[in-house]
What does this fold into?
Amino acid sequence: MECDTKTPKIEWFKDFLPIQTPDLQATYHDGLCQLTIEETFSEDSAKYLCRATTDAGTAETTAFLKVKGKSLVTLLQLIMMIMMTTMMMGALTHKINNTSQI
It folds into this structure.
């Protein structure tokens, strides 16, 4: 059995608002969604949400970021990659299981 899906539409949100700033770099490669904040400030503290949508459905994951001082954000990247991969694999498995029962 094979399952192929189109590249998902990836959307990022900060406190439920779409992220539209050049200060944050969003990438998607080989099933991993990544949001990079090169330089953080206290106003970057927020709930971040990543939403991936394909014909098979939608998967979302969230992470909370609290900035105590200036730093590079690598933990947020790691959390988002792990959670997004888990969510997408779960959605794909669900889609495959539902398809095989038809």
Observations:
- The chain is about 25% helix and 35% strand.
- The mean pLDDT is 77.
- The helical segments are 75-100.
- The beta strands are 9-14, 17-18, 24-29, 32-37, 46-54, 57-65.
